[in-house]
Amino acid sequence: MAAQINSKYGVRVIKNDTETSSALVCSDGLSTTVHPTSYVIKNDIIFLCCGRHVYALDIPVLQLKWFKELDPATCIEIYSFEDGFIIHGEISISRVTLAGEIKWEFSARDIFVNLNGHKEFEITGGQIKLVDFENYEYILDANGKVITDRLLK
Prior knowledge:
The chain is mainly beta. The chain contains no helices and 14 strands. Helix content is 0%, strand content 56%.
């Protein structure tokens, strides 16, 4: 059975009002919407979350450098972090290098979606703060080690 495409990103490079290149990036998994934290541009490369994957495309030609599945459901956000990125997925949080190598992954009791008004994902001072669906808060250090694991009220 073929994978069902649920997320599609159109990427265009425009120079002097003329399109110089374009690419369509597609992925299976749950849908990822286009929003300010669904992509990062760094060192003339666009890194973008699309479905279960993160893609890296060279700018301006939009040639694929690499892509990697970083969450079994969907990659929601990507943030620059030290020498690479932190990927906020629905099921896992990953730290990856610019080359797409996974440095660490973290999963919790439940998905990183919260319906009780708690901010689900935040990076502050080199630490990653997460809240899952069951209202557990996790604070990770830069190496993915748990500093705090507690139930919020």
